[in-house]
Design a protein that fits this description.
Layout lengths: L9 H4 L7 H8 L3 E5 L11 H9 L4 E8 L5 E3 L20 H4 L19 H8 L5 E6 L9 H11 L6 E5 L2 H5 L10 E5 L6 H8 L3 E4 L9 H7 L3 E4 L5 H10 L3 E4 L2 H8 L1
Helix pairs in contact: 2-10
């Protein structure tokens, strides 16, 4: 997911004393914390060190991106190329797993040199048997990766993690592959732009959650309307203390952050 700069949410500055805010206030105390690409604020994004650190920092879940190599392996990486986060260059789709693992994916962070690009299976194994929610985001807006959602679903089923995994994407066509094959609540629609009544759209599509960018929660009663429609709201990417407090006050179900330690401090 992209990072966005956002002012303090106007709708979170002062909640009304009656009405839907009672529902929001109740949910605020149980807002879950998901580590965005792992604990990516303090470790290289989408790597095993970042995912391990997320566990240590007390995150309730993790969000990460999945793409596919030239030889068909599902790997965890955000960009369509390896240029930004590794010592190599080139498109993920054009490189084999062996070629990708010749490079360090430490994202210019000292102390993490030699970190390898992880397979989806390796990340799933890390969280297998834990209470953590695992949010797999398919990066299919540019490279289509036909069948990637079903490939991931079969792996999740094989590992016995179906009840632990949530699937999301900005490309909602990809998510259509999963409708009817996974529970409704396991499908989440990512949004970066304003959509009129997204709760109606999500319900019609058969999804169970909305994943709006933080800035979209400035729309009045966004969370309440989604909840009234039976949808969960998991917001990204929430890093600043004032934003962390604001989205909890709005009653979001989960917040996705690069700094889970900041969010857990507020919850303490």
């Amino acid at each position: 997911m992209r990072r966005l700069g956002v002012r303090v949410l106007p709708s979170a500055r002062k909640a009304p004393e009656t009405g839907p805010c009672v529902f929001s206030a109740r949910l605020a105390s149980v807002t879950r914390i998901w580590a965005h690409r792992g604990a990516s604020g303090t470790a290289p994004e989408n790597t095993l060190p970042a995912f391990g650190r997320a566990i240590q920092l007390g995150a309730d879940g993790v969000e990460f991106d999945v793409q596919r190599t030239a030889d068909g392996h599902l790997v965890v990486i955000h960009d369509e190329t390896i240029d930004r986060t590794s010592t190599g260059t080139g498109p993920v789709v054009g490189l084999t797993l062996e070629q990708l693992r010749r490079h360090s994916f430490h994202n210019n962070m000292p102390g993490f040199e030699g970190t390898q690009l992880p397979l989806l299976a390796e990340v799933l194994e890390l969280y297998r048997g834990t209470p953590a929610t695992v949010n797999i985001e398919f990066k299919t807006s540019i490279e289509r990766y036909p069948g990637i959602a079903e490939q991931a679903r079969l792996l999740v089923e094989e590992l016995g993690m179906a009840e632990q995994v949530l699937y999301s994407s900005f490309d909602h066509y990809t998510l259509l592959e999963l409708i009817g094959r996974v529970p409704r609540e396991a499908v989440a629609l990512l949004f970066a732009d304003g959509i009129v009544e997204p709760w109606r759209y999500a319900t019609q599509l058969g999804a169970g959650a909305l994943h709006p960018g933080l800035h979209l929660l400035q729309q009045p009663h966004y969370v309440e309307r989604a909840h009234e429609s039976g949808l969960k709201v998991n917001v990204w990417t929430v890093n600043e203390p004032e934003h962390l407090a604001a989205v909890r006050a709005l009653g979001v179900d989960a917040l996705i952050t690069n700094y889970p330690e900041r969010a857990t401090r507020l919850r303490a």
